[in-house]
Design a protein that fits this description.
Blueprint: H1 3-15, H2 20-33, E1 37-38, E2 51-57, E3 61-67, H3 72-75, E4 78-83, E5 88-99, E6 102-110, E7 123-132, E8 138-144, H4 163-166, E9 179-182, H5 189-200, E10 208-218, E11 223-225, E12 231-234, H6 237-252, E13 259-264, H7 281-289, H8 293-301, E14 304-308, E15 311-312, E16 334-337, H9 348-360, E17 365-368, H10 380-388, E18 391-396, E19 398-400, E20 407-410, H11 413-426
Parallel strand pairs: 1-2, 4-13, 4-14, 14-18, 15-19, 16-17
Antiparallel strand pairs: 2-3, 3-13, 5-6, 5-10, 6-9, 7-8, 7-10, 11-12, 12-20, 16-18, 19-20
EC number: 3.4.11.-
Protein name: M18 family aminopeptidase
InterPro entries: Peptidase_M18 (IPR001948), Peptidase_M18_dom2 (IPR023358)
Length: about 425
């Protein structure tokens, strides 16, 4: 695979994955096509040497792994972690709002979204709907309207004279409600969702819609941009970019050592859920593979996790927001994230493993430390490390406009990280004690 084909498939992955549910469905599709076997948490597992497997939870988190050997206690896993969710607007349960001559949707802000970037964008709706069939069964299906059916119009500057000098604040209760159509039209949300289910799934009937988890998203396609094609411009780069890079590394790794990819939901709101990094999903899987307690501990201590999330690139218009000694540039390599207060899980040993691989491949690596007078974000790295005790490295691809409706990353960085993760998957020795 070359960089051009890698990035072409990345753009398709981003466009096919408007929600965490769709991201996991897309990953399942690619894993099945590559010969991976689906496991069911409700059933007994039979794991064979030389196997390739995946398991999902809540339809929004996924773990995939290879078993070239079953000697996990002595081989450990080379783990890659990412998250499937992104900041967005989600529909409230009683979403339909009719006011002042328009049908609108009541929304709740999910995660730390840059709200003003959602204004004046062509929006669609996607997610999971749970319903009762005509035979009385409860089922869930994914839907995606795909067409631009909603928008949040800005307020004209004539009615907001100070917006360019005094700043612009968006009230998430009153000012971010999308407009669907005029009140002269009849609008029934349940009927609309039923039509979409039947249109997209011919294997079910719908007696009544009972519940849904639906998100708004920008219909503009992901693209390679910049004068020389230097950038990837897309929604949900944080953190579907890492999900894609990790999956490609797993699919193409030629490794005699077990390799595992974990992509979990709810990172943007703290990861505390049954399918989040602060939940039991990864531990549950590892304990099923190594049911003997001593072997479980050995497996974890023989393993290493690379937690891949986006990193803040030095913004040329806001350079003073960075520590000038730790200011990553786009297309100058993935970023090792360091925080001595444990907001990142990187330590000197895990950083050294990554730098050694990058040096071996003659690829660049950068380091990020937040300014000492600013608060630091976090990732699934310290959460996973704290949950199971695995040695962890936090890295990320430098990105502009993180948590905007449309983010910007480097067209070179993702492919170079993929090459480093391929080498990480097959590396026999990490740190010699």
């Amino acid at each position: 695979m070359n960089q051009a084909s890698f990035n072409h498939c990345l753009l398709s992955f981003l466009d096919d994955s408007p929600t965490p549910f769709h991201a996991v469905a897309t990953m399942k599709r690619d894993l099945l096509a590559a010969g991976y076997q689906a496991l069911d948490e409700q059933q007994e597992w039979v794991i064979s040497e030389g196997g390739k497997y995946f398991v999902t939870r809540n339809d929004s988190s996924i773990i995939a792994f290879t078993t070239p050997t079953l000697d996990f206690a002595h081989q450990g896993f080379r783990m890659i972690g990412a998250h499937t969710d992104s900041p967005c607007l989600k529909l409230k349960p009683n979403a339909h709002v009719e006011r002042f001559g328009y049908h609108q949707l009541g929304v709740e802000v999910y995660g730390g979204a840059l709200l003003h970037t959602w204004l004046d964008r062509d929006l669609s709706i996607a997610g999971r709907v749970t319903f009762k069939t005509e035979s009385g069964e409860l089922k869930s299906r994914l839907i995606d309207f795909k067409d631009p059916i909603a928008l949040v119009p800005n307020l004209a500057i004539h009615l907001s004279r100070g917006v360019n000098t005094e700043g612009f604040k968006v009230n998430p209760q009153e000012e971010i409600l999308p407009v669907l159509c005029g009140a002269e039209h009849t609008f029934e949300l349940e009927k609309l969702l039923t039509e979409q289910i039947l249109r997209q799934h011919n294997d079910v009937s719908v007696a009544s819609v009972l519940s849904f988890e639906l998100s708004l998203y920008d219909v503009q396609k992901a693209a390679i941009t910049g004068l020389h094609g230097d950038y990837i411009s897309a929604a949900r780069l944080d953190n579907l970019l890492s999900c894609y890079v990790g999956m490609q590394a797993l699919l193409n790794a030629d490794s005699n050592r077990p390799t595992l990819l974990i992509c979990t939901d709810h990172e943007e709101v703290g990861s505390l859920s049954s399918c989040g990094a602060n939940g039991p999903f990864l531990e549950d899987v590892l304990r099923r593979l190594t049911p003997v307690p001593e072997q479980y501990t050995q497996t974890v201590q023989q393993s290493m996790l690379i937690s891949a999330d986006n990193a803040h690139a030095l913004h040329p218009n806001y350079a003073m927001k960075h520590d000038q000694q730790h200011a990553p540039l786009i297309n100058q390599g993935a970023v090792i994230k360091v925080n001595n207060n444990q907001r990142y899980a990187t330590n000197s040993e895990t950083a050294a493993v990554y730098k050694d691989i990058a040096n071996q491949l003659d690829l660049p690596a950068q380091t990020f430390v937040v300014r000492s007078d600013m608060a630091c974000g976090s990732t699934i790295g310290p959460i996973t490390s704290g949950e199971i005790g695995v040695a962890t490295l936090d890295i990320g691809l430098p990105t502009f406009a993180m948590h905007s409706i449309r983010e910007l990353a480097g067209s070179v960085d993702a492919f170079n990280l993929y090459k480093i993760l391929l080498e990480f998957a097959k590396r026999e020795q990490l740190i010699t004690k």
